[in-house]
Please model this.
Amino acid sequence: VIIALVLVWVFAGQKSSNVTNGETIKIGGNFSLTNFGSSWGEYNRDSALLAVKEINSSGGINGRKIDLIIEDNKSSAGGSVSAARKLIDVDKVQFILTGWADYTNPVAPLLANKKVIGITISAGSPDITKQSDWLFRVWPKDSFLTQTLANYVIEKKYKRVAIFRTIGSWEDTVVEGFKQQISVGNSIVVDEEKINPDSKDVKSSVTKIIESEPDVIYIIALEPTTGLFIEKTRTLGNKTPILYSTNLNDPVIIGAANGVQNLEGIVYPVYKAPKQDFV
Model:
């Protein structure tokens, strides 16, 4: 989010015919605050609020304060478009922060049409910014995460890989990349179970994956579903190693997994701390 607001500073610092010094810089937050995407959307919102508070308390951007206007897209593509239209047409924002690709892709044409800068702060799709010259991405490419785990699979000589995933465009992109990367080590996918992100019943998926006798299980799923899958796997006493696609240290996952003890031994990637010259 801080990187995104630096971009806002760059754009807002340039002279424009319809912006005068002293005016508030209006930024829209098109976030998933309800339904299955809310755990990430709340992080997006809270970090954006924190960044705006810090910037405004330090005098703003060239003396201009930031006004952050937040809309809930309700974790849907249609809700994202409605939220973006309200922010642009009613609130007259000059910039919009968005989240996942599922909610960023639908608003890309609108950003171009209205000439509003969009910055996605949590979409890792490598091609997402190719849709519009008005859309930028500050979240790392998903391939960074999948390559790390693919290397781990190859290093451990896991040949039979089962995948548990939720249904979504993010998952599609990540799974396809992961499959290609593990194929270098001649690993194969013996089962791939897909489930709706708001589903609470994971028993059949767990049973099918266990029956496929994998060497390792790769999870690319949203937080509550991930925790439920792990809890059911542990309850059945299955000891197959588990890999998770991103940060596992999440209270939603821990709660759904019925405690942090059930996450013991699960391998997941984390980003290295940025070097000081980057900071």
Observations:
- DSSP finds ten helices and nine strands in the chain.
- The longest helix spans residues 38-57.
